[in-house]
Fold this sequence. Notes:
Elements: E1 9-13, H1 18-33, E2 37-43, H2 44-56, E3 68-73, H3 86-107, E4 112-116, H4 125-128, E5 132-137, H5 141-148, H6 150-155, E6 170-171, E7 180-181, H7 194-205, H8 207-213, E8 216-219, H9 223-232, E9 237-239, H10 261-267, E10 274-278, H11 287-300, E11 304-307, H12 310-325, E12 329-332, H13 337-341, E13 346-351, H14 355-363, E14 368-370, H15 377-387, E15 391-393, H16 404-416, H17 418-435, H18 440-453
Parallel strand pairs: 1-2, 1-4, 2-3, 4-5, 5-8, 8-9, 10-11, 10-13, 11-12, 13-14, 14-15
Antiparallel strand pairs: 6-7
Helix pairs in contact: 3-7, 5-9, 11-12, 11-16, 14-17
GO molecular function: transferase activity
Pfam family, one: UDPGT
Protein name: Glycosyltransferase N-terminal domain-containing protein
Amino acid sequence: MAAAPPHPRVLMLPFPAQGHVMPLMELSHRLAEHGVEVYFVNTEFNHARIVRAMEGGDPQTGAIPAGIHMVSFPDGMGPDADRSNIGKVAEGLAAAMLGRLEELVRSKEIRWMVVDVPMIWALELATKVAVRVALFLPFSAAAFALRLHAPKMIEDGIVDEDGNVKRNKRIQLSPKMPAVDAGELPWSGVGKTTDARRLMFQNVIKTRTAIAQADSIICNTFEEIESDALAFIQKTALAVGPLEAPQATPAAGHFWPDDPSCLAWLDTQAPSSVVYVAFGSLAVLDATQLHELADGLALSGRPFLWVVRVNHAGAGWLDALRRRAGGAGMVMGWAPQQRVLAHPSVACFVTHCGWNSVMEGARHGARFLCWPSFGDQFCNRSYVCDVWCTGVGVCADGRGVVTKEEVRDKLERLLGDEGIGARATSLKKAARASVTDGGPSHRNLLRFVDLLRER
């Protein structure tokens, strides 16, 4: 009989989108620090992007540490397919990857898989190859709780069996959890076609079965802010967040190279003066909205750092936005967000409210101007604005446009409210205490490492 591997081996399986790859890579760093050997699976398309980003970015921040092995498999799509259509991406993953995952688990004698919730089809390997499974939540525990509540919403006639809203109702599972309208549930707006949305909701309905099959649940959150939501899951869920990459390698797992030039620009700005604007990897604003935002930033009279995805806006658009917004700010294609949020000149964070951004902002004491567009972002906005009270939300006009006046007025309100600042500072202290030695998230991480070491 072959000797057991000297270190526990775990396979990481994220859904192939930036907001899923990044937190699982951050978890991989944490596990590698404790002697765990990680096999990190990307699609071939995303693996190539990550390699290019590491080569084209800051050479000091892109290296993959020892103990993390990057593995790539096909995603089942053609070379020119639209991979921003996440519903379409999801359709072919199981057929393209399941056999290759089985081969990897067997050949490397892997005993654990950490499976991103949208990839729960991989749980069928649990019995087939005797591998244990931890479900990873790339969103809040509250958003996961809403997934668990979906069958009851069908029973109550709030949504149909495809996830479409039948009766608009505001849903709040406990007083300390966010309230969301039925039309803004975490699966809303995900998928560009009816078939894609149906597929995504089928994944939601399978959540309860996945919990029963999983040996553990890992959450990028911390107990102080989500104790009620964690309890609602009704199975021990290990909150290990806020996850953050080590200072030496914060860009590992990014699809685009970080541009560190903004840090030198931030150094020239006054403390707590800069408006940081970033809408993540998937949110796209149309031309009208981009212009209104540019004009609103100019009206605010504050310096700003605005990240606009180059492959969404194009180089010409970046130059046009720079001219429109005037000389008070910096417009760029992709920024080292964790380092930006940590900078003392940053006053607030204008965000789409993706969970990774919310956790990063919380860890750095950010005030949030919330601008959600789909998925769990509405749930996260409710946390920020209604539960934690560390930010305010924007409101669109009758055309569905957030006007320049709305941007200016909400920034003034956000930055003029001392109570918001005090609560953001308190949240920062709680977030950092959770991940320090002896903190609840640190203890939960060590508990998971112990599980991985079990024979």
